[in-house]
Amino acid sequence: MNLICKLFNIKYPIIQAGMVWCSGWKLASAVSNAGGLGIIGAGSMYPEVLRAHIQKCKIATDKPFGVNIPLLYPNIQEIIDVVIEEQVQIVFTSAGNPATWTSILKQHGIIVVHVIANTKFALKAQESGVDAIVAEGFEAGGHNGREETTTMCLIPMIKDAVNIPVIAAGGIASGKSMLAAISLGADAVQIGSAFAVAAESSAHQSFKDRIISSAEGDTKLAMKKLVPVRLLKNEFADAVAQAEAEGAGRTELMELLGRARAKLGMFEGDMENGELEIGQVSAMLNKIKPAKQILKEIWTEYLSGLERIKDLHDELQH
Questions:
Q1: What is the span of the domain harbouring residue 247?
Q2: Are 55 and 103 part of one and the same domain?
């Protein structure tokens, strides 16, 4: 049995990423009901809002689901307390040191997965006792690795470095890209952008429309002096690029970013002044579909690609 399917008790080795302002209980429960692992993104939620989403998700699905927690958030202790009190079984941590919280979560029987973008942090995550890691390549949306290592290069390096399951992320939105990731050694895939435009995603309709109309080159990695983040190009992204070109430091970039800039764009629909986090694979997305259909199409295409490779292998053997 697939290591990740066994670890999470799910049907398909497909995980929906925990995305700020996109992944509430509706999306998480839809993905879990379809056989994948749905994840509630706690990054955009106050503790009591997260509690409400967890409780609604439990009602909407009897399948496993998880919560993604960015460890850099100021009210991290309250978020951890909510997850423990609500008896969440799976937690994905990101953007911080997993050594701080992994042991506490595991003491409560929680499966812990940490998101990394290089070998150094993969080894640190493994040392901290996580059950699996997400290796996220440069193509990914949202917060990103400073090294700009692509998924194609990152996955085999991480797989060689650790002895725990590896989940590939970054640039994966189809069965073909899933097959590529599995071929590189990944045990499963985590998919963000494709689910950001799902019917059940809590993203604003204008944001979904902008994603499905985007083309190659419409995203860029910004704010490397702060926390690298991949954004769709707009007036805000242009302002960030100009500030960086003029030598802006962390303080100036923080002021430009301000509070609730991501909420303004992704949740409230301001397509010019908001921060629009999405992956390079947005150029491949052209339709809003239910999460169940997205997952089914990815899995069907994956199996089809697997058959094609088997056929090619058989031909070469004769």
A1: 214-281
A2: yes
